[in-house]
Every structure is written in C-alpha cells, then in structure tokens.
Amino acid sequence: MILSPAARFGLPAIGHAHANAAAVIDVGSNSVRLVVYRVDGRSIVPFLNEKTQAALGAGLSETGALTPERMDQALMALKRFAAVLKGLGVRDVVAVATAAIRAASNGQDFVERVRLETGVKLRVISGAEEARLSTLGVLAGAPDAKGLVADLGGSSLELNPVSRHGAPQSGETFPLGPLALMSGPDFSVERVRADIHRHLDGANLLGATPGALYAVGGSWRAIARIDMAVRHYPLRVLHEYEMPRREALAIADFIRRQSRKSLEKIDEEAAAKRAETLPYAAAVLEALVERSPCEKVVISAYGLREGILFDRMGPALRAADPLVEGAIAWADSDPQQIRFGEALARWIEPALTAAGEAFAPHRQAILARAAAHLADMGSGLHPDHRAEVLFDLVLRAPFAGVSHAERAFLALSIHHRYARKPPLDSKIVEALLTLKQGEQARVWGAALRLGAELSARTATLLEQTRLEVGPTQVLLGLEAKAAALGSDAVQKRLQALAALLGRSGEFRIDR
C-alpha cells in the first residue's frame, strides 16, 4: 500500500478529521484561538491552529466591561471556528473563556450571545482552574518538569507549582497581563515595575518554589524568538527552549528598552504581532526571575489547551512517555511496526551500552525506544535524500518530552541509520552536541541499520538473532533457522558497527 505524505508522517489528511481529533477553543484576553489536535494515546499533536487578536481585555481595567467592537471581532472568529469544525467533522470540542470574560461586567452576556449565534458553549473557568490546567499542560509536554509554571495571558498571570510526582496544587492569579498593565499611550518602566512588584508582594509561591520557571503563553514565546535571534541560536523550536537565569534577565531588560522598529529588525514576526505588549511582558518576566530562585526559564509550547486534553486521560496513559508515544504516532505505526520498534530497542542495547552514556540512563532508554520506532521512517523515501529529509523532520517534529540536545541527538542517529556522512546542516549538531555525543549517534545509527536490514524490519526475524559486544568483538548470533539472514550486506553492516566501537565483527550461526 502506498501511503500519502500525511499518512506516512502520522498526520491526518487535510479536510478530513482523524478518528481521534479533538478541538479546543480558547477565548482569552488577547486572542481567540482554535486548535484541532490529533490525539493518539499519550500523543497530542496540533494539525490546525487559528487565532484572531481580538484583544477582548483591552481597556477592561478602566471600564470593567468588554467593548462592542472587541466582542464583534471575537464573535466573527468564533463563527468561523464553528463552520470549520463542522466542515472537518470534529465533534469532540471543548470551549473555554478566561480572565477577560470572567472579570468583565458583561462577560456572561457575551457568553450567551456566543451560544445563540454560533452554538459554541463557552465554559468560563476560574483563575485557579486556569492555573491547574496550564500546569497539566506543562506536564503533558515535559513530564520531568519541576519548578513553577508562569502562564501569562492578556489580562492575568497564573502561577502554579509543578512536579512530575505531584498533582497540581493551588495556584495564584495576578492582574499582570500586558493588557491589564497598559495605562496611557507610552510605556513607563518605573510605573510598570512598581505595579508588578506591588502585586507580586502578595505572591507566596515565587520565593518558595525551587527549580525552573516554565513560561506558558504567546508573549513568552515571542520573547524567546527574539532571544534566539539575538543569540543566533540554530534550532528554531520553541518548546523546551531554555534561557539561563542571567540570560533571561538580560533579554527582558533588552526588550523593554527597544523601539518597535528595532524589535522588527531582530524578529519581524514576533515584533509585528506583539510590539505593544512585549515591553510589559518583558517587565513581568524580569520581576519573576528577580523574585524567584529559578536557575533557568524554560519555554513550554504546551499550556492550557493541552492541559484540557491531558486532564481527560487516565493515570496509565498519563504515565506513558510522550516522546515514545509521539514517535509511534508520528511514524503512523501499525501493531507489527510497534512490535518491531520495541524489539529493535532491546536488540541494539548492547551496542549503545558499549558506546557509553550519551545522556542520563533513564533518558537514554527513552531515546533508544524513540529512535527504534523511527527507524523505518525512511522506507518510502528516495534513497538519495532520505537521510537529510529525516534529519530535518526529526529535528523539528512536534515531539514533547525532549530537550533540544536530545532532539539533535535523535535526529543525528536517524540520519546515520541511512548515511555515514554527516548531515549538511552540521551547525545545529555542533552547537547542541558534544563531539562524544556525535560519535555515539553514529553508533546508534549503525546499530539501527544493522538490526533493521538483518530482520527486514520484522520482530519475528529479529528475535531469532542476538547482538553481543565483548572487549574485542561484536558478535552477531543467528539461530539455525535464521541462518539465511546472514547475507553479505548484513555482514558489511556488522563490520561497520564493530569498527565504530573499535572492535572486530564476528558472525556466528548457533547449532
């Protein structure tokens, strides 16, 4: 069967809802957004993302009410969203409204108008519930997260502790969104900092929550984009992008001192969308880092919307690893492929151990499983191009639960599964990996290639063989019934793996 490109890479065809499609409509203080996701087990991948900058919270702090113009703009977007969902056939829809709607005197009137004119039933959630769901979203995207979640919306800031082994605790909400801080046409550093610190004087969580500061929200992502541009950072993937404490303070100070024109020269998209609000967001970030013990700021592309979906999963599903589940879903694996991936991960383990630890043991085991499940991704691509194509795809795939260094390592391993020479875009590898990790990725790729070609990517055949690594030799053992698998090409792959490990290759048929 020939798969379409969408099916080949685990994506639903455009214009047709996947069987596991779920949609979240998020009516916030700054934007009104629709995201449609493919949900495969623990994997949550967006395939449609639309928003309108309705700025419902603009002027709310002065008047206490939503303006007719802003409501009309938001309503127009919601009418489109309802039509899109109907056209896609998506029935699993959750619609929520946050700070602006819950604070406005006419918020409930707007909710009712939305229901009557679009059929969308908005659920207005409290600040505490918003903080809880955002924290669940962070855990959905980074299961080892430990520290404090800071979710910055248009009108409010939610803070909540996060830990892998604990349920989200009671959070705190402050009126510190950019739209709430705006007063007058000009940005005043002194006034804004005074307002922020006055509110944060009542924060109990900031000084008492060690770990990282997990930044959720479009304003934080825009700041990260500018930081990437200033640093000439080679991998433009926002999820799990890290800014050390000192760097976060520096970029916040830098942004709030720049004009719109200066920011546009650095990153036109980030500045064009949020030029008016970025100085306020930067001032909030600066205050949070100053008042917390965080050692770094970590950008989370997962937040409230993903938390809503994660909240509906059972304990067993939540406990599954998002990177492994994402690799399986992205490769569009059937049960036989999944079985082969798990068998391959076990089979290559002796070679990976001999190569040494590229990452901490528990992370290495997860990366090995993910790599094994991605090892067959190139079978439908042209041999001349698949190594480079897969390197780029894996590097930027919508995976959760993976750091930038791990992304680069996984992408390089899959590249070397198909090619010995380094990828054309070596700057990313050089920036994110050590020389030792680069050498280890070559071993991983050679082991994946040997196991896949030996068994024709079939678990039943692979399980009739074994790989052993001794002090001087790499042994490939075959059961007698699998003796025919030992072709010249297989022996060539064995010698290539052995050479990378500084050993000789030995081929043996068990009698």
Mean pLDDT: 91
Strand percent estimate? 15-25%
First-last Cα distance: 38 Å
Strand order of the largest sheet: 8-7-6-9-11-10
Label the structural class.
alpha/beta
> Runs with pLDDT <50, length 5+?
1-16
- Helical percent range? 40-55%
DSSP strand count: 14
Q: What is the overall silhouette?
A: elongated
Largest sheet: 6 strands, mixed
Q: Cα-atom Rg, whole angstroms?
A: 25 Å
Figure out the total of helices: 25
Notes on the protein architecture:
This protein is of the alpha/beta class and 511 residues long. The protein has helices spanning 5-8, 60-63, 68-88, 99-103, 107-118, 127-141, 178-181, 189-200, 218-231, 245-255, 260-266, 268-274, 278-291, 304-311, 315-319, 322-330, 335-347, 349-355, 361-374, 386-396, 404-418, 426-432, 435-455, 459-462, 488-500; strands at residues 21-27, 32-40, 43-52, 93-97, 123-124, 146-152, 157-163, 172-174, 212-216, 242-244, 296-300, 465-469, 473-478, 504-509. A six-stranded mixed beta sheet has the order 8-7-6-9-11-10, sandwiched between helices. The longest helix is centred in the first third of the chain and has 21 residues, at 68-88. The two termini are 38 Å apart. Mean pLDDT is 91; it is low at 1-16.
Sequence-ordered SSE layout with sheet pairings:
Elements: H1 5-8, E1 21-27, E2 32-40, E3 43-52, H2 60-63, H3 68-88, E4 93-97, H4 99-103, H5 107-118, E5 123-124, H6 127-141, E6 146-152, E7 157-163, E8 172-174, H7 178-181, H8 189-200, E9 212-216, H9 218-231, E10 242-244, H10 245-255, H11 260-266, H12 268-274, H13 278-291, E11 296-300, H14 304-311, H15 315-319, H16 322-330, H17 335-347, H18 349-355, H19 361-374, H20 386-396, H21 404-418, H22 426-432, H23 435-455, H24 459-462, E12 465-469, E13 473-478, H25 488-500, E14 504-509
Parallel strand pairs: 1-4, 4-5, 6-9, 9-11, 13-14
Antiparallel strand pairs: 1-2, 2-3, 6-7, 7-8, 10-11, 12-13
